[in-house]
User: Fold these one by one.
Assistant:
Number 1:
Amino acid sequence: MNKHVLLVDGMALLFRAFYATAMNNNFMINSKGIPTNAIHGFIRHLLTSTNTFQPSHVICCWDMGSHTFRNDLYTEYKANRGAPPEELVPQFDLVKEVTEAMDIPNVGVAGFEADDCIGTLAQAYQGEADVTILTGDQDILQLLDDGIRVALLKKGYGNYDVYEADRFLEEKGITPKQMIDLKAMMGDSSDNYPGVRGVGEKTALKLLINHGSLDAILDNLDLLTKAQKTKFENDLEMIHLSRKLAEIHCETGVTCDLNGAEFKINRERVIDKFNELEFKRLGEYV
């Protein structure tokens, strides 16, 4: 049997699930006074995806605190993000108890983001297994490769935009790896780094298609328009920094033995956990 590993971006699912009901002030506070809406939605997303993709193995990757090596490189990195809502905070640890009850390994490394762990594991399993990455984060598309695909969560449950490397190249005109150079130039407002000021996605994409790489662009600044050349020269340091911030770091040293990640749910154990959290109807998904 061919192995098929589902790598789950835990925070992406949890945040998405939280905000889907938090907008209506529905935090699903149980009799112990604990909000559970994010965990409830997380479980639905997770079990719907395992039903859809039928993986043989499942691993959940997590951010381990907000400080990573990217903050050391650039103090403003993600500085635009406020603290998580207080109703979400108690759900961070509880959700890991749920994945644990499902016998799904929780993986994370201090100083790195979940993306970095996902990238490290995806490359480690490449060749040994097919890998599907479940996330809502388009940045992960840079990991697309032979045997590595990405399922982007869409609105609702069970709706996915599935990318393979060929589709990405066809749609964007660049390879998944070139996405790193693209983001180095255009920056990322949600992660709060600027790239080259005054260069947007359209220009960056055009330059990348024409020259092939950021290094080739920087080696041939004289071939750019005068205005473009000035913009690049003004932000040379930031371009190199932005490239380091944009690239998913696939050498975190994290490992996870696939023997311990087989997806075999002990229904009784999981239902016990659901009952403890006072989830009435989730049992039908297991």
Number 2:
Amino acid sequence: MSTQLLLVQALNGLQFGVLLFLVAAGLTLVFGVMDFINLAHGVQYMLGAYLGASFAAWTGSFWPGLLLALPAALACGLLLEWLVFRHLYDRDHLSQVLATFGVILFLNQAVKLVWGTAPLQVPVPSLLEGGIALMPGLQYPVYRLAILAAGIATALLLWLLVERTRAGALVRAGASNRPMLAALGVDTGRLFMLVFGCGAMLAGFAGIMAAPILSVEPGMGDSVLILAFVVIVIGGIGSVRGAFVAALLVGLIETLGRSLMPDLMRLFLAPSPARQAGAALASMLVYVAMALILAARPRGLFPARAG
């Protein structure tokens, strides 16, 4: 593999990693603070993409579509929390898994009913079209760099919110000792609702930003959800910093693995078997990395501080 292709794949991995972080950040807060397993979190990523595509088509521009889709994604998350999820907080994890899996099935069918099964395409905003020369003969899309910058800025803002504000202190207290927080008079129901809403909006934001580079289609959040769970396990449940580091790591492993493994297997196998074996091994790399990390650090790289 050439240096140019390696650099492109590394940037693609980082860009994929920040999208994973936007999904995983809300998931790790919901799981860490509320001890709630939300398998429907990937559906909120899908809803964000569909809302962004619809509002962009309606307004004729990506930016108004983004501004309209964010509060709409927040409203969808709050509505789901009010209708379904708040009734599951005191139930066991199996009940939560079964109920949120049902939400996945329902919303996937609802999306097909409203938008159809054909993939939707969202054009790249004109302001971010074209590429930037990273080295002679190598252009990298501006929009992908914008996704990377937006993800890093969001990660920094979220870290400041969680670590440096009173609201963040309540979130961290809820993650470490929820019964004590309730005993001190904090309205944990409202706190849970706000955390859930913010998580849904972050997942929706990831879907909106991914829409111009991916096809918007039913079920698009399922594969992202699996990797998001890997991210929060590696990073440490309830840790925003851990989610960010783990998301970048998973994004790089996933992207570079799929690019490098077929080439590496050609050292030992003929081209056709090498492609097949390389693709199979590449799909396993993230889970092998997770197992190795958990063997060394069972609570993840940056576990949330216990109270």
Number 3:
Amino acid sequence: MFKSSISRRMVVKAAACLALAATSLASLPAHAETTLERAKKDGYIRVGFANEAPFGFATPDGKLTGEAPEVAKAVLAKMGIAQVDGVLTEFGSLIPGLKAGRFDIIAAGMFINPKRCAEINFSEPSYGIGQAMLVAKGNPKGVKDYSSIKDNPDLKLAVMAGAVEGGYAKDAGVAAGQIVALPDQSSLVAAVQAGRADAAALTALSIADMAKKADGVESTKPFGEVAGKSVKGHGGFGFRKEDTDLQEAFNAELKTFLGSPEHIALVEPLGFGKDYLPNKTTAQLCAGE
């Protein structure tokens, strides 16, 4: 009799515990779907780009192309994400747009540096490249690099708002009043053509592409140092801090892809190739090395 009574009480208590546990589990929040999980399920992902050739731009018929979008498309396809949709964004709004969820990856050839690393995560770099200046045909002001602007206070230098060139100009001693910040490549070209700026600064590949497509302008010889420091920039893909699984999966495929015959064949028509492969890691670049 005593034993039966104990057994019944144990059964009642066990049932109560199971009910409580079930209630507690039901009240827990469901697993939040990650960006990577959503993209794999839906079969597509959105990337932000700034219409800066040859890094990331839209063709006249609306096709998303450029070094960063093409590499992204190849890497994402290997991850099982077949469709990549581009979201055109001014360069200075790419990081805010990513953090606000307007798109899920920055595919704009964005240089990796400590300031940006504090805001977002980066893939390993996909290229490394130096700088050049866009000047009027014949280079009438004799511009060679940032020091040319610093040494002549009458000269104006156009840079793209939010890009690294504004910082390079300041490092070189160019006065703030000589710097004209503009939203995109076409604005830089127009400023030089109209004489509102005596030069425009961007990466050597961008300047070469702009000079090839526009009338009345040309590129200076590329250079790799400003104020005694290397300005060989390394560009990569940007991710939100919380999207670590997406970043890690992307990196795993990117490391295998970079330098492969498939990669070189993809980017050579855009002006990239073996000479533009990166020689620094993201850890080094985020540390300012």
Number 4:
Amino acid sequence: MSTVTAERPTVRTAESGGAGWQGSSVFTQVMVFAGRSLRALREPRLLIMSLIQPFVMLVLFSQVFRGIANGPGFPAGANYIDYLMPAILVTTSTQSAMGAGAGLANDLRNGVLGRFRAMPVRLVSVLVGRSLYDLVRNTLQLGILLVAAAALFGFAPAGGVVGTLCALALALFVGWGVSWVLIALASWLRNVEVMQMVGFIAMFPLMFASSAFVPVGGMPEWLQAVARVNPLTYAVDASRGLAFGSATASSVVGALVTSAALALVGGALAARGIRRP
């Protein structure tokens, strides 16, 4: 009697290469994964909770530090809320980038990425979809903050609507670049708690040791030295200059190039990290 041995079919994924069905296009995969993440926005409580911290910071700093507008080094003729709000846009965007890293770390820990490995899917599409979701969420979040600042505190910078929208776009691009660094960390650390701790330790000093809330000239000398080499200072100054209608090309280009470099380096590291078993 002959014995027939059944062979297990070989599953070829987009990551492994080779012949066979390679699945949908990369663009379609990115859109599907972005849509998967965006479904979380159907829950309004998530967006409300993400707005609490930046709104509290906006209220506290706009009231506690508004006397700084009368001090040395403050832009002439500007209100403190006009000085503060562009910085709130940048700092909120960079802080929100931690959500992209934490979300990816959670997917890696609960086995979602393991199921994707058995499908004809390029794992890089998961990363790009996650970053697009973070960008859309940031846009909604910062847009609501801008409306609140204008309605409640009289935010009306000299650059007008065009300058404000340019400052918003710059803040979103800076946050998008930072999100790729945190996505890269998540792909290697694969732990939500560690990701949140690392993100807080990195972002908290950068935020306060910058020109975000007070002019650099009013800081102690040692802190001035730190603020002048802090990349967040350049991003805040560029965003503030756009809102005031006085931005220089060098400041804006510097912020854009730095953010693009962070995205490229973070994306390359993330692409390698996510392929690890």
